[in-house]
Amino acid sequence: MRVLINREKTGKRISKLMREHKMTACDVAEAVGNITEKGIYKWTAGAVLPNLEQLLILSYLFDCDIIDIVVATMKESEP
Q: Residues 14, 70: contact at Cβ < 8 Å?
């Protein structure tokens, strides 16, 4: 089995969580640290994914589990 993370859907999920918590990209960048507002926009656009440490901070920030942020699917491994 392989786990595939959908960057675009994960970005949309982060964007949704930001709206629900009334946070801007600047607010999130400040809370996460070591990332710019532009970096947050790259996440929400699905261009890149947050690293594990950033995901952990986001989970605390949005009061949810990491799995509630990351959109992933399981795929059968090919022989």
A: no
Q: Which residue has the tokens 């995901």?
A: 55
HEC string of 28-74 equals: HHHHHCCCCHHHHHHHHHCCCCCCHHHHHHHHHHCCCCHHHCCCEEE
Q: Tens digits of per-residue pLDDT, 6-33?
A: 999 999 999 999 999 999 999 999 999 9
What's the rounded Cα separation, in Å, for the pair 51 and 73?
A: 18
- If phi > 0 it is left, if psi is from -120 to 50 it is alpha, else beta; for residue 30 that is alpha
Q: Tell me the torsion sign for CA atoms 47, 33, 69, 61.
A: negative
Report the predicted TM-score, pTM, of the whole model to 2 decimal places: 0.93
Residue where the block lists tokens 């507002």:
37
